[in-house]
């Protein structure tokens, strides 16, 4: 027989506390009845002997110690899932918010998911084409990888996310088995409308599942939203055999929510006030990407986070970098020079890139070409530093060539239109065209047979 508890001990921010509770379980969902009629949901986040602390998914406004009763459901938060979720929009706890009706399914799935058994994991191979040259050629996104985008406040990461959603495709995967799960965390109303409108106008909405948590939505819902999105991704990938790209923006908002709830729980803070368990919490999200032996589908993650004060050593990008396999860095100096997308390629990298490019995947010259572009553009930075000292007129002829290469690389290669979708072939051919500015003897990272075959001298 289920018990109903008629008296709360304390209400503090999004938390409610009860005592003399029997057989409570961590992460269990509770039903909170206010004034005998209005029901809210909560989740148990701490148990100390017979005392329980629960987070309320909605506002605690209207709750008092004496007008509230609590019932324990005996199960974690579960969301119903079927293939009908494609093209739909949900809130952070998986409830439809697009006025298109409920999702009916014979099964519900726990948002906490299950970690993929390391023995069952398949090493990520094959690439996802984004249509953006600086990503496809230099920080290639591999199917099953987790590759974050490090941005900053005011930089166009939302536009980049929309462009990737519109253009992304996997070699050999059709529209029927490739989809996007998009989680917007703590976004403003106009940003949420921008995402919806952009997906609708570009005709990709039917292959996108959106989980939207607005800035004025409850903090606790922001902590659940990425878990709901990843649960939907796992269902589509491992039960429906689809290839799923998960884009989560902005993970910094998620970490701020963690910090706020941790503070309300009166936990001992770590760096910059964030909870000490933030690393393992982020890992519990990021490690849900991958491919499994014996299953057709895959989950690739592209989390986006804004670095406070553009500080890459801030705890959020710092911990994210430890868990994930590389990063794509958006540069403010490039953005200020009207370069879109302002991807700073030198601090960007994809650690799994080498295993998903080259012959049989992209093209035989891809690896050498990427190394040469990195090396040449790195030398451009040295030459630009020299110009600050001696001026451009006193540069050697070779250094002037590098200056020309740098301008051309940023203007024609890194820069591309918001609606410009380049194929991998176009991206690699354009790289050869830009490298032809430099003397052939400077291309020491390229195999001579590739220079002979693809070179434009």
UniProtKB/TrEMBL annotation:
<feature type="domain" description="ATPase F1/V1/A1 complex alpha/beta subunit N-terminal">
    <location>
        <begin position="11"/>
        <end position="74"/>
    </location>
</feature>
<dbReference type="InterPro" id="IPR027417">
    <property type="entry name" value="P-loop_NTPase"/>
</dbReference>
<feature type="domain" description="ATP synthase A/B type C-terminal">
    <location>
        <begin position="355"/>
        <end position="454"/>
    </location>
</feature>
<dbReference type="GO" id="GO:0046933">
    <property type="term" value="F:proton-transporting ATP synthase activity, rotational mechanism"/>
</dbReference>
<dbReference type="GO" id="GO:0046961">
    <property type="term" value="F:proton-transporting ATPase activity, rotational mechanism"/>
</dbReference>
<dbReference type="InterPro" id="IPR020003">
    <property type="entry name" value="ATPase_a/bsu_AS"/>
</dbReference>
<dbReference type="InterPro" id="IPR022879">
    <property type="entry name" value="V-ATPase_su_B/beta"/>
</dbReference>
<dbReference type="Pfam" id="PF02874">
    <property type="entry name" value="ATP-synt_ab_N"/>
</dbReference>
<dbReference type="Pfam" id="PF00006">
    <property type="entry name" value="ATP-synt_ab"/>
</dbReference>
<dbReference type="InterPro" id="IPR004100">
    <property type="entry name" value="ATPase_F1/V1/A1_a/bsu_N"/>
</dbReference>
<dbReference type="Pfam" id="PF22919">
    <property type="entry name" value="ATP-synt_VA_C"/>
</dbReference>
<comment type="function">
    <text>Produces ATP from ADP in the presence of a proton gradient across the membrane. The V-type beta chain is a regulatory subunit.</text>
</comment>
<keyword id="KW-0375">Hydrogen ion transport</keyword>
<feature type="domain" description="ATPase F1/V1/A1 complex alpha/beta subunit nucleotide-binding">
    <location>
        <begin position="131"/>
        <end position="350"/>
    </location>
</feature>
<comment type="similarity">
    <text>Belongs to the ATPase alpha/beta chains family.</text>
</comment>
<keyword id="KW-0066">ATP synthesis</keyword>
<dbReference type="InterPro" id="IPR055190">
    <property type="entry name" value="ATP-synt_VA_C"/>
</dbReference>
<keyword id="KW-0406">Ion transport</keyword>
<dbReference type="GO" id="GO:0005524">
    <property type="term" value="F:ATP binding"/>
</dbReference>
<keyword id="KW-0813">Transport</keyword>
<dbReference type="GO" id="GO:0042777">
    <property type="term" value="P:proton motive force-driven plasma membrane ATP synthesis"/>
</dbReference>
<dbReference type="InterPro" id="IPR000194">
    <property type="entry name" value="ATPase_F1/V1/A1_a/bsu_nucl-bd"/>
</dbReference>
<protein>
    <recommendedName>
        <fullName>V-type ATP synthase beta chain</fullName>
    </recommendedName>
</protein>
């Amino acid at each position: 027989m289920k018990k109903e508890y008629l008296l709360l001990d304390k209400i503090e921010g999004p938390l409610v506390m009860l005592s003399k509770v029997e057989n409570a379980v961590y992460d269990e969902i509770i039903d909170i009845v206010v004034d005998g009629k209005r029901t809210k949901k909560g989740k148990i986040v701490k148990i100390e002997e017979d005392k329980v602390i629960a987070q309320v998914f909605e506002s605690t406004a209207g709750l008092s110690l004496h007008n509230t009763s609590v019932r324990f459901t005996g199960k974690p938060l579960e969301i119903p899932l079927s293939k009908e979720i494609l093209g739909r929009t949900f809130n952070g706890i998986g409830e439809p918010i697009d006025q298109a009706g409920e999702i009916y399914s014979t099964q519900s799935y726990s948002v906490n998911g299950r970690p993929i058994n390391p023995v069952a994991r398949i090493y990520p191979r094959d690439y996802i084409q984004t249509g953006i040259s600086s990503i496809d050629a230099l920080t290639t996104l591999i199917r099953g990888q987790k590759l974050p985008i490090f941005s900053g406040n005011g930089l166009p990461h939302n536009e980049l996310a929309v462009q990737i959603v519109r253009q992304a495709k996997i070699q050999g995967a059709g529209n029927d088995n490739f989809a996007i799960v998009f989680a917007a965390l703590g976004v403003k109303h106009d940003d949420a409308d921008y995402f919806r409108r952009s997906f609708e106008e570009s005709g990709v909405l039917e292959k996108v599942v959106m989980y939207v948590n607005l800035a004025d939505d409850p903090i606790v819902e922001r902590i659940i939203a990425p878990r709901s999105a990843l649960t939907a991704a796992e269902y589509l990938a491992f039960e429906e055999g689809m290839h799923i790209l998960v884009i989560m923006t902005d993970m910094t908002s998620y970490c701020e929510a963690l910090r706020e709830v941790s503070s309300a729980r009166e936990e001992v803070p770590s760096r910059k006030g964030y909870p000490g368990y933030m690393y393992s919490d982020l890992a519990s999200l990021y490690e849900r990407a991958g491919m499994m032996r014996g299953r057709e589908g895959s989950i690739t993650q592209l989390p986006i986070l804004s670095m406070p004060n553009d500080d890459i050593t801030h705890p959020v990008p710092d911990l994210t970098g430890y868990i994930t396999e590389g990063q794509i860095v958006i540069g403010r100096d490039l953005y200020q020079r009207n370069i879109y997308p302002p991807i700073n390629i030198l601090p960007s990298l994809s650690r799994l890139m080498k295993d998903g490019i080259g012959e049989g995947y992209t093209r035989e010259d891809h690896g050498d070409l990427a190394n040469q572009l990195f090396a040449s553009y790195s030398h451009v930075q040295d030459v630009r530093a020299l110009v600050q000292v001696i001026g451009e007129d006193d540069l050697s002829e070779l250094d002037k060539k590098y200056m020309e290469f740098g301008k051309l690389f940023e203007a024609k290669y890194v820069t591309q239109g918001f609606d410009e979708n380049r194929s991998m072939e176009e991206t690699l051919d354009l790289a050869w065209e830009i490298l032809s500015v430099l003397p052939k003897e400077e291309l020491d990272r390229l195999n001579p047979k590739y220079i002979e075959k693809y070179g434009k001298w």
